[in-house]
Amino acid sequence: MKQRLWILLPLVLVILAFIGYRLFWADETDGVEVAEVIRGKFEQYVTSIGELEAHKSTDILIPDVLTDRTVRIRDITINDLVREGTEVEKGDYVATLDPSGVEEHIKSTRETLDMLEANLEQARMDSSLNLSEARDAIRQAKDNVLDKEIKVEQSVYESKAVQRQAQIELEKAQRNLEQKKRNYRQLKRKNEISVQRIEEQFRQEENNLKILMQLKSDLIIRAPASGIVVYVREWNGEKRKVGSTVSRWDPRIAILPDLSTILSVTYVKEIDVTKVYVGMPVKITIDAFPEEEFNGTVRTVANIGKEIEGQFLNGFKVEIEVDPKGFELLPGMTSVNRFIIREMDDQLMVPREAVFVEGAEQVVYKKTPLGIVKQEVETGGENDEFIRIVKGLNEGDKVVLTPPE
Fold this sequence. Notes:
Strand content: 35-45%
Structural class: alpha+beta
Number of helices: 4
Distance between the termini: 43 Å
Number of strands: 21
Radius of gyration: 46 Å
Strand order of the largest sheet: 2-10-14-12-11-15
Helix content: 25-40%
């Protein structure tokens, strides 16, 4: 009997050592990342990144002259622009537009004016010369008629045939005179139209030069009102800055926002937009104030989506009115918006990484004193951080975040 006990003693010692290892050293030596099942408020929400904008703002625009279609300048470059966030008063300097394009057009217009002036002078000279020649032709035709009239008078003493021939020559001379007169009137009208056309072109170019000179003096942009300067965004999402171009089709250089109402503008993915509605509560964090959480309410939801750049999916524009809580929120600040779909108190939760799908089951790997065991669970919703546990775990249980080999 004693011999048998001595044989079993090493086996018992090995078992006790294994249990002791699991009880006292396993957490430190397994090297497995562990999370604890917690109890608290569970929020089911949709998250999106946005940017703060003012509900109302005053646009800082290109000079009015540039919107005139007679000015043949498609776009113009911003040479200088005050730093974003600069506080300005009405009339303060904001930006300078590149004058090189305007100066080139002024030079071209002056050259055109010189050419038109020369053409106009030439047209007037040609008109005078042509009309003088036409008048001479009329005078010659009149003299010819008088000559034929005399011959008719003298033919009374001649035969009938000679009289008839003299009369025919007179009629031909009269017709020629009338033709010369018609030609003169047509030539005069043609020359008048030609001169008028050149004069009209000259006046138009003079007006263009006047507009361009006005534009050159208006390339220094000043604030139309008091406020804080905020850059506008291009069609590709980049902020308009020094080196960017503006045109009559996109005339905004910057804006002066009304900070009394601040919106967080974001795009919600089409798979989530059906969960978002006007009046929905939103929790907002802003990069500039990482320790603060702001409350918001959905103001509008777009009916038509557009492709979100770089994500190859459609998004719907959503505007959220933000409660600033006394903080100075400025347009352009980045926001993270959590659209609260549902809130539940006293719920069990684990990190999303702790739940795995195996076949038709959702499971976790629970850490116990005797090792890691697989545990089937029933879940009831998730958010960006946690999954709600309905059945299968208790508060304080520990689960691993990577499945064991």
